[in-house]
Design goal:
Layout lengths: L2 H12 L3 H5 L3 H20 L14 H11 L3 H8 L11 H26 L5
Helix pairs in contact: 1-6, 3-6, 4-6
Length: about 120
Amino acid sequence: MKGRTVTAMLLAYLVPGAGHLYLGRRARAIAFFLIVVLLFAIGVAIDGDLYTINHANGSLLRMLGALGSLGSGVIYWIAAWMGVHGDVTSITFEHGTAFTTTAGLMNLLLVVDAFDIAQGRKE
């Protein structure tokens, strides 16, 4: 694997769209950044929670949820540092949690996309 590929993948994980920007795909980078950040922000705004490894308690589904949430990169760590925890009594709690997890999963797909572009498999 080329050094360029590793750099693109690392950037893509840390900041949504950064890997694509690094690879010269400016329009994609902006679109992907906006999609992931808005999904995550909407999820937090409607009382969504962040899955964490600490609260998985051996549950396979919660661990998978945590891995999905962690896919958001720096956004996840900032939100966790700020103490973002959804309000389980809120009517939108489940939807918000789905939004934050979907943002992470989307970003993980973008890491794979950056890999494909950097390897020359895709335009």
